[in-house]
């Protein structure tokens, strides 16, 4: 893939519009043949849990669960902030497909060659 791209998402049901748009942009990036990562942190880590996004559907957009599934099916990766995940006592056995719990060093490694990023 020519280049990398990172979408950082700190929101979930507390701001479903941002959560949705983040995955719309991530899908555009992976469709543009960028090696794309969505980094979930703070409240965004809740999206890593199966079923959590099922009732998020912003008007004018595809349902969030569909956007997430399409992103992973297209080769996108979901990185989940380990300390944020642990702070919220979430279940490692309930991760959505494509999600991996990582420390900050993994994100830095991915971005080290100058990957552009956008945050929501």
Question: How is this structure best described in words?
Answer:
The chain is of the alpha/beta class and about 120 residues long. It has helices spanning about 15-30, 65-75, 80-85, 105-110, and strands at about 5-10, 35-40, 75-80, 100, 115-120. Strands 4-3-2-1-5 form a five-stranded parallel sheet. Strand 1, helix 1 and strand 2 form a beta-alpha-beta unit. The longest helix has 16 residues, at about 15-30. The radius of gyration is 13 Å and the shape is globular.
Number of strands: 5
The percent range for strand residues is: 15-25%
CATH architecture: 3-Layer(aba) Sandwich
The SS-based structural class is alpha/beta
Put simply, the count of helices is 4
- Tell me the name of the CATH class: Alpha Beta
What are the key terms here?
about 120 residues, alpha/beta, Hypothetical Protein Ychn, Chain: A
Write a short abstract of this structure.
By secondary structure, the protein is of the alpha/beta class. 33% of the residues lie in helices and 20% in strands. A 5-stranded parallel β-sheet has the order 4-3-2-1-5.
């Amino acid at each position: 893939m020519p280049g990398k791209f990172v979408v950082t998402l700190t929101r979930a049901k507390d701001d479903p519009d941002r959560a949705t748009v983040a995955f719309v942009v991530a899908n555009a990036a992976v469709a543009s043949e960028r090696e794309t990562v969505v980094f979930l942190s703070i409240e965004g880590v809740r999206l890593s849990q199966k079923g959590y996004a099922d009732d998020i559907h912003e008007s004018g957009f595809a349902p969030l669960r569909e956007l997430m599934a399409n992103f992973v099916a297209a080769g996108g990766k979901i990185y989940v902030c380990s300390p944020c995940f642990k702070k919220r006592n979430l279940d490692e056995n309930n991760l959505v497909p494509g999600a991996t719990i990582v420390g900050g060093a993994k994100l830095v490694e991915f971005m080290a060659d100058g990957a552009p990023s956008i945050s929501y």
